[in-house]
Amino acid sequence: MPSPIGAAGETFWRLGYEGASIADLTAAMGITPQSLYAAFTSKADLDREALEQNRREEGAAAGRNLAGGGHVIEVIGQLLRASAHEFTRPGRPKGCMISTAVLTCAVENQAIASHVSALRSETLALLESRFRQGIADGELRAYTDAGGLARFVGAILQCMTVQAQDGASEADLLPIAELAIDEVGRHRQPSG
Prior knowledge:
The protein is an all-alpha fold.
């Protein structure tokens, strides 16, 4: 059974920020609206807390993969294959909570949308940093566009999360991951 914050996070993940009502959240958390507001002051604060918990738990694997050792192409391969698995795990919402948390919203919710956008930007920065390290280590060609490659992998991850939400299985997502790994592999520095 998830913690109250975990239950709120799953509700936001499943219904979206605007789709998750206070009644949905309090029912999932097993608390009253008064308790929710006493603990978090607002729905946006609860969502920020749920996003942080998701980053520490569900999302931490991506950061560990990117920080791990090994050739950059192997690291990206592990990230994409693991994402295909994680995005389709049974018994929880599909896709990635941060990738789809708040893509569009009402003007009054722009602050939380900006917060989530910043979280997605952090992932792109981690990807770009790992590609730059791969260039510096001689794993990738010197002329590789690290920023462009990071955005490409980020786009693939976001595509996979949307397809998972639309019902794609792990078996459906793995070929996408393999094609992306092949594209990243095109930038491998030939041994020589």
